[in-house]
Amino acid sequence: MSEVSQIIGSKLTSPFLELLPITGVAISVFDQNRRPAMLHSTDLTAAHLEELHFDLGEGPLFDAFASGSLVSIPDLATTERWPVFLHNAAELEVGAIFVFPLMLGAVCSGAVLCYRKATGPLADSAAAIGTSLSRAIAGPAFREAIQLAVDEPPDELAPIEWRRQVHQATGMVIAQLNITATDAFSRIRAYAFSSGHTVQEVATEVVTRRLNLAEFPE
Questions:
Q1: 85 and 7 within one domain
Q2: Strands 24-30 and 71-73: what pairing?
Q3: Residue 96 belongs to a domain with what CATH number?
Q4: For every one of its 218 residues, what pLDDT tens digit does the chain have, with 9 covering 90 and above?
Q5: Are 120 and 96 in contact, with CB atoms under 8 Å apart?
Q6: Is 159 exposed, middle or buried (0-12, 13-18, 19+ CB in 10 A)?
Q7: Are residues 144 and 173 in the same domain?
Q8: What H or E segment, with its residue span, contains residue 183?
Q9: Cα angle for residues 40, 209, 153 (degrees, 5° grid)
Q10: In whole angstroms, what is the distance from residue 84 CA to residue 7 CA?
């Protein structure tokens, strides 16, 4: 990631760390297929939590995007929603997750995932601050996502570029199996889950022609 992008990322994420009782943050926008693309994260745990959503297709990020409202999980150990996501998140040092939607007017363009090592709810005042911060950064985050999609060189391995490679792999699987784009992405995700790899790793194998999913029937 470029130095300029790092500076922008710090400006977007720092207020959350400074004003909310949280440990880390990941900011994502959603593409035209309603899949998250991470812009910035403050640490590896936050990045891993965001990546789990993309790999598994479930989790609070999707709920916040769909509802346009805060999704709060004060204690991951006592939550029964998103069982696969929670099973994988249990391997991380995460007690609570709070996801704020990025609202551009009445439209949700993405989400801010905040996690905390300790369990416990957000106070109403903290939730209000997080909601205000998310609205404030929604425009800048969306504009940066557009700029990254256009300008980011492949060897930078930016999150937006990772997602672009997944789209390319999906197109190749469509050709390999003669199926729809939705089914092709589902096959990539299923292969990733069954093989213990991330969607990004499987996409790289497909794009570099080291993996042909036609050789692996369902």
A1: yes
A2: unpaired
A3: 3.30.450.40
A4: 444 445 555 788 999 999 999 999 999 888 766 777 788 889 989 988 998 898 888 999 999 999 999 999 999 999 989 999 998 898 899 999 999 999 988 889 899 999 999 999 999 999 999 999 999 999 888 887 776 655 544 444 455 556 667 777 878 888 888 887 777 777 887 887 777 787 788 888 888 888 888 887 66
A5: yes
A6: buried
A7: no
A8: helix 181-195
A9: 35
A10: 34
Neighbours of 105 (CB within 10 A): 9
| Alpha carbon of residue 126 to chain centroid | 23
Selection from 53, 75, 14, 58 nearest residue 159 by Cα: 53
Written as one string, the DSSP assignment of 43-102 is: SHHHHHHHHHHHHHS-SHHHHHHHHSS-EEES-GGG--SSHHHHHHHTTSS-SEEEEEEE
Q: Which residues span the domain enclosing 128? A: 3-151
Using alpha carbons, select from 126, 145, 162, 194 the residue that is nearest to residue 27.
145
Report the DSSP beta bridge partners of residue 100: 112
The residues, ordered by sequence, that sit 6+ positions from 11 with a Cβ below 8 Å of its Cβ are none
- Beta-carbon count within 10 A of 76 CB: 19
Whether residue 125 sits in one domain with residue 88: yes
